[in-house]
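seq:
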Amino acid sequence: MTAIVPKVRYAVKERLLRWLRRCADAGLKTRLLIIVNLLNGRDPRQTAAVLHVHRATVYRVARRFRERGEVGLLDRREDNGPAKLDERFLAILDEVVRSRPQDHGWRRPTWTRELLVATLVRRTGVRVHVATLSRALALIRARRGRPRPTVTCPWAKGAKTRRLNRLRRLVESLPRREVAVYEDEVDVHLHPKIGLDWMGCGQQKEVETPGQNAKRYLAGALDVRTGQLLWVEGTQKNAWLFVTLLAKPYHHYPRARVIHVILDNYRIHTGLQAAWALAQAGGRLQLHFLPPYSPEGNRIERVWEDLHANVTRNHTCPDLATLMREVRYYLRKRNRRARQHQRRGAA
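struct:
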């Protein structure tokens, strides 16, 4: 029998065992197991090793048992009053986390736990420790992450909405002998885009990058009816790339009276070369510009996102020629799937 706990009657030991079997509190169960192990003859070092606790914890629990008996095993924080992390506190914390420090009078642009504690004292009058705040953040499922950079459209909200609604009505009420496409360009880099991937425990995958980067550019036109993508490639993202792309739907849809091209305000779309191409088309090509910085209105953006996810992100292509073969294969395969989906819908 170890000397750090007193000898107890058999009835006391049995009562401790019954208490242990009924106990649902993890902390109390650990304290009961410490005392039971000590009463069964294990020394503090062995008890700490078996229960995976620090040896100081074993001595502290044994001292409380010597001084106060079974009552000393209870959590003394139960008399601290009502819990601080109530529904109101967590709701205000969730509201604060979703805002910025400047919204609450601070000069710092990002939140720290200490700054959150100080803000919550102002809002609720309740002060908690930063460790307690960490538990509260876990309860509301908050996380540390990188914000997504965005650019705000300089237009008034009403003007932007009217333009997007007009383009939506154009697509929805498109006459039978007219075609509408979404147009945009995308960069293809030999240096792979780094993205998320599954990894084993303790593993960090590596993506080999060539010593010198190289680029190719695609300009695409996405048919709003069929989902087919027409594209051209170039070594420069310039007006000639755009003009070459305009020729694709012009020749691909020879029976279309008008081909509506919905596109952004990139400078290569409004130059002299673009005006010359429109004049040569004799009115069959009409450009419809989206509001500035409104990629959500251009459906082809999703195609480029899928292209990066399936080809360019974390790729292992040794040279640009190999990478471009993968890009073409993916886009042709995507068009085949779009045709199959269209045939099933027609049937």
